[in-house]
Amino acid sequence: MTKPNKVLIELRRKRGESQKTAAKNIGITQSMLAMLETGDRRGSDATKIAVANYYGVSVDHIFFGSNITKRDKEDK
Q: What are the backbone angles phi and psi of residue 58, rounded to the nearest 5°?
């Protein structure tokens, strides 16, 4: 079972936007945004970058924030 992307959902809700509006502004389909939010799809690197740029945050913050370990950060 997949986990919802709570960060992505919260960023959209803070703007007061529907999935349809946010997706249009990002340049992706509403169904893709819905699947990113539910965790059913990961999205391509280009999609992740477009989403992060739209919300003005890093890709890591939206898609990897809670999954990055201390060791992963040290390897960079």
A: -80, 155
- Taking the whole predicted model, whether its pTM rises above 0.90 is answered as no
CA distance readout (Å), 34 to 9, 19, 73, 75, 76: 9, 7, 29, 32, 31
> Which pLDDT score, from 0 to 100, does residue 66 have?
55
The token pair at 12 is 């959209």
Give, for 56, the enclosing helix (H) or strand (E): none
The token pair that represents 71 in the structure block = 């060791």
Decide if 2 contacts 40 (C-beta within 8 A): yes
3 vs 9, 14, 27, 70, CA distance in Å? Answer: 12, 20, 24, 22
